[in-house]
Amino acid sequence: MSTKLKPTQLEKIEAGIVALLKDNLGAGYLIDIFPDRPGDFDMGKANKAALVQYTGSTYAAPDGTKSGWQQRSPSFAVHLQLRTLGYAMRGTREVEQVRFALQAANIEGAELRLVRDGIADQDEHFWRYVIEVACTIPAVPRPKHVPAPLMTDFQKEGA
Fold first, then answer.
1. 64-79 residue pLDDT tens
2. SS in 3 state form for the chain?
Protein backbone atom coordinates (compact mmCIF):
# COMPACT_ATOMS: atom_id res chain seq x y z
CA MET A 1 0.00 0.00 0.00
CA SER A 2 1.55 3.30 -1.06
CA THR A 3 1.12 6.39 1.04
CA LYS A 4 0.40 9.63 -0.77
CA LEU A 5 2.44 12.42 0.74
CA LYS A 6 0.93 15.84 1.29
CA PRO A 7 2.37 18.44 -1.09
CA THR A 8 5.09 20.63 0.37
CA GLN A 9 4.66 24.39 0.54
CA LEU A 10 7.02 24.70 -2.44
CA GLU A 11 4.91 22.26 -4.47
CA LYS A 12 1.75 24.20 -3.56
CA ILE A 13 3.32 27.49 -4.68
CA GLU A 14 4.59 25.89 -7.89
CA ALA A 15 1.11 24.49 -8.61
CA GLY A 16 -0.40 27.89 -7.81
CA ILE A 17 1.86 29.56 -10.37
CA VAL A 18 0.78 27.00 -12.98
CA ALA A 19 -2.89 27.68 -12.14
CA LEU A 20 -2.41 31.46 -12.42
CA LEU A 21 -0.74 31.09 -15.79
CA LYS A 22 -3.53 28.82 -17.05
CA ASP A 23 -6.14 31.36 -15.90
CA ASN A 24 -4.36 34.33 -17.48
CA LEU A 25 -2.54 33.17 -20.62
CA GLY A 26 -5.27 31.36 -22.47
CA ALA A 27 -5.66 28.14 -24.40
CA GLY A 28 -2.87 28.92 -26.89
CA TYR A 29 -0.26 27.89 -24.31
CA LEU A 30 0.98 24.55 -23.06
CA ILE A 31 1.42 25.26 -19.32
CA ASP A 32 2.87 22.75 -16.87
CA ILE A 33 5.58 21.96 -14.32
CA PHE A 34 9.05 21.82 -15.85
CA PRO A 35 9.61 18.22 -17.04
CA ASP A 36 11.86 15.73 -15.26
CA ARG A 37 13.66 15.10 -18.56
CA PRO A 38 13.88 18.43 -20.39
CA GLY A 39 15.53 16.81 -23.42
CA ASP A 40 12.42 14.72 -23.97
CA PHE A 41 10.04 17.71 -23.77
CA ASP A 42 7.78 17.98 -26.80
CA MET A 43 5.51 20.98 -27.30
CA GLY A 44 3.36 18.98 -29.67
CA LYS A 45 1.26 21.33 -31.76
CA ALA A 46 1.44 24.19 -29.26
CA ASN A 47 3.21 27.33 -30.43
CA LYS A 48 3.75 28.64 -26.90
CA ALA A 49 4.78 26.83 -23.72
CA ALA A 50 5.22 28.10 -20.15
CA LEU A 51 6.97 25.64 -17.84
CA VAL A 52 7.33 26.37 -14.11
CA GLN A 53 10.40 25.26 -12.16
CA TYR A 54 11.54 25.73 -8.54
CA THR A 55 15.10 27.04 -8.80
CA GLY A 56 16.23 27.42 -5.19
CA SER A 57 15.91 29.52 -2.04
CA THR A 58 17.83 32.09 -0.06
CA TYR A 59 17.46 32.40 3.71
CA ALA A 60 17.63 35.31 6.13
CA ALA A 61 19.52 35.00 9.40
CA PRO A 62 17.55 33.38 12.26
CA ASP A 63 15.20 35.76 14.02
CA GLY A 64 17.15 35.79 17.30
CA THR A 65 14.55 34.02 19.44
CA LYS A 66 16.53 30.77 19.48
CA SER A 67 13.54 29.07 17.89
CA GLY A 68 15.39 28.50 14.62
CA TRP A 69 12.80 30.32 12.52
CA GLN A 70 14.11 32.01 9.39
CA GLN A 71 12.62 33.83 6.44
CA ARG A 72 12.97 31.84 3.24
CA SER A 73 12.77 33.30 -0.26
CA PRO A 74 12.10 30.55 -2.77
CA SER A 75 12.52 31.39 -6.46
CA PHE A 76 10.62 29.96 -9.40
CA ALA A 77 11.43 30.27 -13.09
CA VAL A 78 8.83 30.37 -15.82
CA HIS A 79 10.49 29.03 -18.96
CA LEU A 80 8.65 30.60 -21.86
CA GLN A 81 9.25 28.82 -25.16
CA LEU A 82 7.81 30.37 -28.31
CA ARG A 83 7.83 28.68 -31.69
CA THR A 84 8.74 31.06 -34.51
CA LEU A 85 6.10 30.99 -37.19
CA GLY A 86 7.97 32.58 -40.04
CA TYR A 87 7.30 36.11 -38.85
CA ALA A 88 8.89 38.42 -36.34
CA MET A 89 7.72 37.11 -32.97
CA ARG A 90 10.06 38.65 -30.45
CA GLY A 91 8.15 37.47 -27.39
CA THR A 92 8.01 40.77 -25.52
CA ARG A 93 4.20 40.68 -25.46
CA GLU A 94 4.24 37.15 -24.02
CA VAL A 95 6.79 38.10 -21.36
CA GLU A 96 4.51 40.97 -20.33
CA GLN A 97 1.50 38.61 -20.17
CA VAL A 98 3.41 36.37 -17.74
CA ARG A 99 4.45 39.41 -15.69
CA PHE A 100 0.88 40.67 -15.44
CA ALA A 101 -0.32 37.20 -14.41
CA LEU A 102 2.22 36.79 -11.59
CA GLN A 103 3.26 40.19 -10.25
CA ALA A 104 1.95 40.65 -6.67
CA ALA A 105 -0.20 37.50 -6.91
CA ASN A 106 -0.88 35.81 -3.57
CA ILE A 107 -0.35 32.04 -3.41
CA GLU A 108 -0.51 30.09 -0.16
CA GLY A 109 -0.28 33.34 1.80
CA ALA A 110 2.88 34.44 0.00
CA GLU A 111 2.99 37.41 -2.35
CA LEU A 112 5.00 36.84 -5.53
CA ARG A 113 7.51 39.43 -6.60
CA LEU A 114 9.34 39.73 -9.89
CA VAL A 115 13.09 39.10 -9.81
CA ARG A 116 14.17 39.24 -13.44
CA ASP A 117 13.27 38.32 -16.98
CA GLY A 118 15.24 37.97 -20.15
CA ILE A 119 15.98 35.99 -23.24
CA ALA A 120 17.69 32.68 -22.53
CA ASP A 121 18.16 31.35 -26.06
CA GLN A 122 17.07 31.86 -29.63
CA ASP A 123 17.42 29.85 -32.81
CA GLU A 124 15.60 29.63 -36.11
CA HIS A 125 12.77 27.60 -34.52
CA PHE A 126 12.30 28.98 -31.00
CA TRP A 127 12.63 32.01 -28.76
CA ARG A 128 13.21 31.06 -25.11
CA TYR A 129 12.73 33.45 -22.20
CA VAL A 130 13.00 33.04 -18.45
CA ILE A 131 10.84 35.03 -16.06
CA GLU A 132 11.90 34.57 -12.43
CA VAL A 133 9.63 35.25 -9.46
CA ALA A 134 10.17 34.84 -5.72
CA CYS A 135 8.24 35.18 -2.48
CA THR A 136 8.98 35.13 1.23
CA ILE A 137 7.74 32.37 3.52
CA PRO A 138 8.71 31.25 7.02
CA ALA A 139 11.17 28.36 7.30
CA VAL A 140 10.25 26.57 10.51
CA PRO A 141 12.46 23.75 11.81
CA ARG A 142 11.07 20.43 12.89
CA PRO A 143 10.83 20.06 16.68
CA LYS A 144 14.03 18.57 18.09
CA HIS A 145 12.72 17.60 21.49
CA VAL A 146 10.68 14.43 21.56
CA PRO A 147 7.97 14.62 24.21
CA ALA A 148 8.53 12.34 27.20
CA PRO A 149 6.31 9.27 27.33
CA LEU A 150 3.26 9.47 29.53
CA MET A 151 3.49 7.78 32.90
CA THR A 152 1.25 4.75 32.75
CA ASP A 153 2.38 2.67 35.74
CA PHE A 154 0.77 3.88 38.93
CA GLN A 155 1.30 2.21 42.28
CA LYS A 156 -1.41 2.39 44.90
CA GLU A 157 -0.40 3.20 48.45
CA GLY A 158 -1.73 1.02 51.22
CA ALA A 159 -3.07 -1.63 48.91
1. 887 788 999 999 999 9
2. CCCCCCCCHHHHHHHHHHHHHHHHHCCCEEEEECCCCHHHCCCCCCCEEEEEEEEEEEECCCCCCCCCCEEEEEEEEEEEEEECCCCCCCCHHHHHHHHHHHCCCEECCEECEEEEEEEEEECCCEEEEEEEEECCEEECCCCCCCCCCCCCCCCCCCC
